[in-house]
């Protein structure tokens, strides 16, 4: 799903989340493990108004494990609890209720000290489109839930989903936030993963960005797949990157009349293979 975010939509999305904050004890902020900063909302701290928060790096199955470890250290240094999951298979999800309760330990301990039976902790999942909110909710619920409400402006009655034997309750509709559009590289990173449609950013520009990044950080994976000979010596020289795009196009038979390479076709094929995991696991930004 791609949402065209206009200022009015952002205000509405923000208001909807802030309405929901009144109902819950903690927030699960979902990010994409391949780009944990670029897949966050730029105003998240302000929007959440200090609600206890767990940061989840989803799609960890697709990310570079070494870089994911670095991100976990980074978030720890920032004072946040974060951990990687794969919502599509459910790996790591068992940890969520435990971590949420840990986050709310003081509050729960106070209830116990007053002789009260702790009530289930109530949680809201938030994140930008395509980070896996619906997948996570459905996995936690053990059935298909988050289909209708998953758009700004679409409202329905609040429903609570019991998780972890009733210890935790999840709001069935996630809070949808917008990404940080102002930074062009953020847009490209999101587009490489397929989170922004190619009608919005040019497919050749997206592939150029990805090929440049892979030349630098994942040369082995890319060069082996497309039998590329020489790693660029100057990553900032566009000619060297375009030469690679042409080599990739030739390898995949993307030829036009006169022996020229069809760069648009080559770009689409490259991105399709990348997203399908044909070049292995990768991350598009690292903290250090
Ligand atoms: P959203 O609600 O935040 O917008 O995201 P959604 O759950 O719709 O997930 C977006 C895409 O990401 C889906 O793929 C989903 O299957 C995939 N996804 C979610 N979590 C994970 C994960 O942990 N690992 C991997 N590898 N993929 C994940 P899609 O191609 O859009 O849909 P579909 O082919 O699954 O139907």
TrEMBL record:
Pfam families (UniProt xref): MMR_HSR1 (PF01926)
Subcellular location: Cytoplasm
Annotated Gene3D superfamilies: 1.10.1580.10, P-loop containing nucleotide triphosphate hydrolases
Keywords, sorted A to Z: Cytoplasm, GTP-binding, Nucleotide-binding
Domain CP-type G: 14-179
InterPro entries: G_CP_dom, GTP-bd, GTP-bd_ortho_bundle_sf, GTP-bd_ribosome_bgen, GTPase_MTG1, P-loop_NTPase
Family membership noted in the UniProt record: Belongs to the TRAFAC class YlqF/YawG GTPase family. MTG1 subfamily.
Purpose: Required for a late step of 50S ribosomal subunit assembly. Has GTPase activity.
Name by which UniProt lists this protein: Ribosome biogenesis GTPase A
Organism: Paenibacillus campinasensis
